[in-house]
Write a structure and sequence with these properties.
By secondary structure, the protein is α/β, with parallel strands linked by helices. It folds into three domains: 216 residues, Rossmann fold (3-Layer(aba) Sandwich), CATH 3.40.50; 90 residues, Orthogonal Bundle (N-(1-d-carboxylethyl)-l-norvaline Dehydrogenase, domain 2), CATH 1.10.1040.10; 131 residues, NAD(P)-binding Rossmann-like Domain (Rossmann fold, 3-Layer(aba) Sandwich). It has an eight-stranded mixed β-sheet, with helices on both faces. Strands 10-9-13-14-15 form a five-stranded parallel β-sheet, covered by helices on one side. Helix 8 packs across helix 10. It starts with 6 loop residues before the first helix and ends with a strand.
Length: 448
């Protein structure tokens, strides 16, 4: 062993190799639960922590609350010693603590790190010598060292400090960004390379060993900040390119050109081009949020990320564009928006997932209501939608029958379960924001 690798750290890696290490994952949501199942598949004893008692009881009963994760997977994990709890004192019993909690924006579009702070305060008193703490929550560069570590050190009852690689005691800290893509079944989770940045060389080795046990490839970087920035780059790259095609979509509308035909032609180029597609706005936890995290942090360095901010403005404006196009389509049918009956198809932020986070559908519904429309919705994953961080709807889903009663059917999320040919046939007017009706010829369809 090198002089920075203590016997305790070496034993930690050995326990990982022998699958005798105990893994604790905080946050049993869209990131934490799939990660728990990966560790369970590799025969690790996994404890899932969550403050939501309903999630805890559901998991311990062998059930699932995420559509893409069947209950049978939870039941198999239970046989491999997976369990859930709300008792953070059990943190002492695990070897690695992985934090997978939300990092949303507040009402001023500034980073809300309250979940990270609250989690750090909850686990700090229970940390013990030699444990590894890994943050997975997407955030701005510097969060691990500037926010997480001070709370862990100040709140630790044993007065432990972070081991940066030269000490012989303390606990270890690393950052490894989540790379979940809900609804994407084309890539196995373990085939997605895992970026890891440790606070010191030993933490990097320990974190790489932990993730190397469940992922086929780990990608070590020099610091947690580099790993934090890598995650932001990935999602800002998508955000900027989606903004580009969203803007070109609006231009193509004025020019009478089909943007989807243009993209299909452009993507035949075998180099230098990657296809991105326009839509009604951005949703999900990462792409609509991450650019604002970096823009906020950049201001501390007297730097304005103008390119990123512009992309954010374009994408944020898309629900308003969709509503305006709906108004135009109704006008062409001699119908005003005020008093018009509009059925919104799809609440989820993307097709075939049960996830409402930052969904443009919610904004579109609120805008339509504000302008006097009588709005209904249908989504196979959401029979009811109530109140969230940025919406207050209190609506029950409408069945997909008697579509002719609506003045307009607005396709916002293109779920695979929908029979689009039937929807077009039975509706008076269809406004399609996702090109879901591609190949269907009808004067009823307005694509936007």
């Amino acid at each position: 062993m090198t002089d920075v690798m203590t016997s305790g750290a070496a034993q930690f890696i050995q326990r990982i190799d022998y699958r005798s290490a105990r893994i604790g994952i905080i946050g049993m949501g869209y990131v934490g639960l799939p990660l728990s199942l990966l560790f369970s598949e590799e025969r690790f004893a996994v404890t899932g922590f969550d403050i939501d008692s309903r999630k805890v009881s559901t998991l311990n009963a062998g059930g699932s609350y995420i559509v893409r994760i069947p209950g049978t997977e939870i039941q198999s994990a239970r046989k491999n010693a997976f369990r859930a709890t709300s008792d953070y004192s059990e943190i002492t019993n695990v070897d690695a603590v992985i934090i997978c909690v939300p990092t949303p924006l507040n009402e001023y579009h500034e980073p809300d790190l309250s979940y990270i702070r609250d989690t750090a305060k909850a686990i700090a008193p229970h940390l013990r010598e030699g444990q590894l703490v890994i943050l997975e929550s997407t955030t701005y560069p510097g969060t691990t060292e500037e926010v997480l570590i001070p709370i862990l050190e100040e709140g630790n009852s044993r007065q432990l400090r972070v081991n940066r690689g030269t000490e012989t005691s303390g606990f270890y800290v690393a950052f490894s960004p989540e790379r979940e893509d809900p609804g994407n079944d084309s890539i196995a989770r373990r085939d997605i390379p895992k970026v890891v940045g440790g606070v010191g060389p030993v933490a990097l080795k320990l974190a790489s060993a932990v993730y190397g046990s469940i992922f086929n490839r780990t990608v070590p970087v020099s610091t947690p900040a580099a790993a934090e920035m890598a995650k932001l780059l990935e999602n800002i790259y998508r955000c900027v390119n989606i903004a580009l095609v969203n803007e070109l979509k609006q231009l193509c509308d004025r020019m009478g050109i089909d943007i989807f035909e243009v993209i299909d032609a452009a993507k035949t180029k075998p180099f230098g081009f990657q296809a991105f597609y326009p839509g009604p706005g951005l949703g999900g936890h990462c792409i609509p949020i991450d650019p604002f995290y970096l823009s906020w942090k950049a201001k501390q360095y007297d730097f304005r990320t103008k390119f990123i901010e512009l992309a954010g403005e374009v994408n944020v404006a898309m629900p308003y564009y969709v509503v305006d196009k709906t108004v135009e389509a109704l006008n062409e049918h001699s119908k005003a928006l005020k008093g018009a009956k509009v059925l919104v198809l799809g609440l989820a932020y993307k097709k075939d997932v049960d996830d409402l986070r930052e969904s443009p559908s919610l904004t579109i519904i609120e805008l339509l209501k504000q302008r006097g429309a009588v709005v209904s919705y249908n989504d196979p994953f959401f029979p009811y939608v109530g109140r969230g961080r940025h919406y207050d709807l209190d609506m029950h889903g409408a069945p997909l029958d008697n579509l002719s009663q609506y003045d307009c059917v607005l396709i916002v999320t293109d779920h695979s379960d929908y029979d689009y040919a039937r929807i077009v046939e039975e509706s008076k007017l269809v406004v399609d924001t996702r090109n879901a009706t591609k190949g269907i010829r009808s004067e009823k369809i307005v694509r936007c």
